[in-house]
């Protein structure tokens, strides 16, 4: 055995030596051309050359999809409500009455009306959101011995659902048993619509599951209502679950469902997913509408890396499908400008809207509104002036501008005080457009003064402007003002803002219903939840506000009160989660600076500990996002 091992080693050594000798011979016989310095420089230049940026959406993207665009705005017609008095005048359901205040009179013509006539009348008033008139028509059926059908009851339910009257919708649904009628898919659809409209999403899903147990196949409008309710309640994951269930088990999604899911993608900034959905629409030969196009632009606008593509899509929509951008389109693009800090483009958008409004008046699709100026002020807030660098000018001809109203100067302001001066001038123009003052608009106006470091103006706006226009500060307003206090180490003003914030929360809590029916309690809870999202006082936002107040007080060396604020807020709300220690670093560092070890220990105790990172670990995760 030992002799065999030695023999194997000798054989392996011989093979190794033969391989080395063969390599040397080949190297010696090979003729390599000498590479000069020019070739080396050319190779290096090619390797080090920057990779050209390819657009994420090609210039012919929409053209290649070969879509059929449907502009719903060109076909919008006002629904004319139908009055009961039309019956007494002998007019048909589709005609308008010369007087809607006439009393109901019994005439021979009413005796001739059929069940179909009554169904059409109830349906017309349901579309016009006139449940009272629909109910009157339903009562007349009994008076003239016309037996109600399931369709007439469904139309009456729809009338109440469209008017957001949940209680009467439920009551009408219960009439089906009294009339010996069996609810069908449309009955359940109207009931689900009413629950969703009343923000009772959980109950809507209970009805949905009950309906499925009857072996009924849910219709597309039912799925669309549930998806819409999930998105409004910020339950995007649940919306995708419903959409996938419909797609895999029940129906091919229609234009409405696809558009809703494009909106879901926009909420999360999932542009790639939105584009895939949009391509699916084209594959199934569905008709994207103006709403679909606006939502797709919105998805791109939510991502700064798709900023250019948002404008590219608009150009393609106009060039290939004749899409006419409206106020919603440009308001969306203004949000993109704010994220990209592109004040120049935002000013160009405002000019376009302004000129169109002056030209077309009330017929203009681009008349600026409060959302326009809110988004515009955020553009001014995010803009970073270039100092003494000459601002760029726009390419718009002065001849395009009306002489009645002087518009913005052509050059972009290059200093903070000029940015604020221009924004103040715009703010003073708001009455010319009959713009309604809202908390969001005034908060954006306040935020631009804060970001552009206009200290005195910030205090003035906070104390006077809201009262001047009769607008109540919301939690977003108070949060931005507290940020001002943090950056300026203004402890006195911070306490004033914190007091206003506590008053605001107390007013919201006092609106809660402690007594009443289960229906009332659920409706109020859903309303409070939606209001908290809209005004910025959800549990997570309250925690963020408390952390900011504690950090602000810590920056003014008031560690005792900083700790008191943080602890009291955590004790007050059982649903509020403790802040992470990394979010309290200004407070933590101030404890170290002032050598206050007791407060530091207490702060560490109440905070959520961050996980230990093994920076030098062999198995460190390389794709961590934090």
Automatic annotation (TrEMBL):
InterPro entries: PPR_rpt, TPR-like_helical_dom_sf. It holds the Pfam family PPR_3. PPR repeats lie at residues 184-218, 219-253, 254-288, 289-320. PROSITE patterns: PPR. This is Pentatricopeptide repeat-containing protein. It comes from Thamnidium elegans.
